């Protein structure tokens, strides 16, 4: 176990020491990876990274919730669904979805940097982790009353007017005329 851990640290150190000083991203990636290895070491029984799965990653993300700073209202809270609650409540603090998403991205890259194996064996890229992150995002959006759906794509007004004013072919232009008019208007 300790041999694998030190090998992983050496691999990450080799990647980051190739430059004079690591970037903020590389330094954060290293700290995150060290935290994950420490978590695996403290598990009962201790786990090695080669046996780690998406379920272990989800447990790690849940473990990190205790250090979160984002208030996530529970369904029974009177402020559930309110973006700006008027007063304090006793709802738990959790890790924000964006922080977890960034962490998973850095961990995925760190796993690849240390030569953790084939991309399919990367536990941070597991489908279960993606589903968990999606559920966290949706739950936090509901708790704050913020819809987190896809934004609808809107056509630029100039192109829309051109399509309607084209050659009268059923309200649909050739597309080329719309591009020419849009390009000349810019």
UniProtKB/TrEMBL annotation:
Residues 24-152 form the ALOG domain. It comes from the Eukaryota. The keyword Transcription regulation applies. InterPro entries: ALOG, ALOG_dom. Residues 1-24, 143-170 are annotated as: Disordered. This is ALOG domain-containing protein. Signal peptide: none annotated.
């Amino acid at each position: 176990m300790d041999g694998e851990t030190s090998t992983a640290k050496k691999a990450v150190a080799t990647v980051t020491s190739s430059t004079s000083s690591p970037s903020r991203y590389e330094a954060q990636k290293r700290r995150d990876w060290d935290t994950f290895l420490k978590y695996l070491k403290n598990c009962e029984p201790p786990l090695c990274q080669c046996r780690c799965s998406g379920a272990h990653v989800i447990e790690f993300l849940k473990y990190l919730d205790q250090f979160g700073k984002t208030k996530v209202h529970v369904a029974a809270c009177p402020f559930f669904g309110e973006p700006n609650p008027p007063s304090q409540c006793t709802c738990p603090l959790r890790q924000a979805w964006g922080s977890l998403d960034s962490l998973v991205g850095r961990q995925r890259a760190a796993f690849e940097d240390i030569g953790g194996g084939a991309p399919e064996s990367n536990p941070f890229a597991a489908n279960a982790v993606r589903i968990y992150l999606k559920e966290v995002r949706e739950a936090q959006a509901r708790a704050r009353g913020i819809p987190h759906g896809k934004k609808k794509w809107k056509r630029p007004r100039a192109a829309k007017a051109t399509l309607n004013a084209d050659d009268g072919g059923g309200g649909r232009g050739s597309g080329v005329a719309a591009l020419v008019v849009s390009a000349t208007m810019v």
